[in-house]
Amino acid sequence: MIKEDQGIVTGLIAGFYDVQTSTDTIRTRARGVFRKNNLKPAVGDHVKIQIDDQGTSYLVAVLPRQNLIGRPAVANVTQILLVMSAVQPDFSLQLLDRFLTYFSWKNIAVSIFLSKSDLVGISDLDKIQENLNYYQEVGYKVYFSKKEVASNLPNDIGSQQIWTLAGQSGAGKSTLINSLKSGLHQETGIISNSLNRGKHTTRTVNLFSLGKGYLADTPGFSAIDLTPIKINELCNYFIEFRRASKFCKFRGCQHLNEPKCRVKELVETGEIKKSRYDDYLLLRKEIENGKLPEYLK
C-alpha cells in the first residue's frame, strides 16, 4: 500500500530532498521523470511524496510555484530580509536601490536589516540611519540592530511564509542567522579588503523553522542582472515613483524630460530622494547598454 503526503522541501543534500510534512521531516529522492523533464525541485517547493510499505519514499510532484529566485534557488518566497552592512563592505545606497529594484521586479516584498552598525563611527552611522529613514517613510520596514531583528522577526513571519536572507557577500547573513537559530553555526567569512566584499560562505540553501514559517539562508546576490527589465517599466519598480506617477501630466511618463512630471517635481522639493532618482537614471543606462556595470563583474 502506498501512502501519499504533501510538504515543503526544506533542504537538499547529495541528491536527497528533506520534506517537512505536517507531522515529520522525510528524506526522499525525486522520481526519474524530473530529470527527464529537466525539472529540479527547489528548496521552498510544495511537493507531493509517496511512501511504500517498506518506508521507501519518493518525491513525485511539484505543486505550482509563486516564484523562484536565487542561485541555488528558493521557491515560493514571501519576503526578502535584505542585509546591508554599515561597513566591511561599506554601506551603498546604489547597491541598496539595485536590490530593491530587482525584488520589486520579482514582486517580492523586502525588509531591510542594517548589519555591523557597531563597527562604524557615530557620525557615519547617523548618516546611514538618516538615509534609511527615507526608505522607512516610503514603505520599507527597516531593522536597525540584530536585537531588533531577534525581537520582531519571529512575529513578522506569518504562517507557512518563507522569508529569504539576501545581500552582498560578507554583509553578515550567516552571522545573523546564527543569532536567530541556536545550533546552526553557519560558517562565516573574512572580508577581502581589496574587493571590499566577502567570499560566499553559504553554498547550499536550507529552510529553518522561525515563528510560524521559515527563514532561508542563501549565497550573496552580488551580481544581480537587471538588464531583462523592460526599460519603460523600470520606473514602476521604484515604489514612490509609482505612487507619484498618477499625478504626472502624461500617462506612461518616464520621468525624464516630460513637462509637468510629478516625480521630478518631488525630486526638486526633496520629497523624493535625489540619490533614488540618480540611481533610476543609472539603471536605465544599464538596461539600454544590456550589460552589468563594471563594479559588479
From TrEMBL:
GO terms for biological process: ribosomal small subunit biogenesis. SUPFAM superfamilies: Nucleic acid-binding proteins, P-loop containing nucleoside triphosphate hydrolases. Keywords: Cytoplasm, GTP-binding, Hydrolase, Metal-binding, Nucleotide-binding, Ribosome biogenesis, RNA-binding, rRNA-binding, Zinc. Its cofactor is Zn(2+). Zn(2+) binds at residues 248, 253, 255, 261. Binds 1 zinc ion per subunit. Its EC number is 3.6.1.-. CDD domains: S1_YloQ_GTPase (cd04466), YjeQ_EngC (cd01854). One of its GO terms (cellular component) is cytoplasm. One of its GO terms (molecular function) is metal ion binding. Residues 66-224 form the CP-type G domain. It is an enzyme of class 3 (hydrolase). It is found in: Cytoplasm. Transmembrane segments: none annotated. It comes from the Bacteria. GTP binds at residues 115-118, 167-175. Residues 75-222 form the EngC GTPase domain. Its main location: cytoplasm. Pfam families: RsgA_GTPase, RsgA_N. Belongs to the TRAFAC class YlqF/YawG GTPase family. RsgA subfamily. Monomer. Associates with 30S ribosomal subunit, binds 16S rRNA. One of several proteins that assist in the late maturation steps of the functional core of the 30S ribosomal subunit. Helps release RbfA from mature subunits. May play a role in the assembly of ribosomal proteins into the subunit. Circularly permuted GTPase that catalyzes slow GTP hydrolysis, GTPase activity is stimulated by the 30S ribosomal subunit. This is Small ribosomal subunit biogenesis GTPase RsgA.
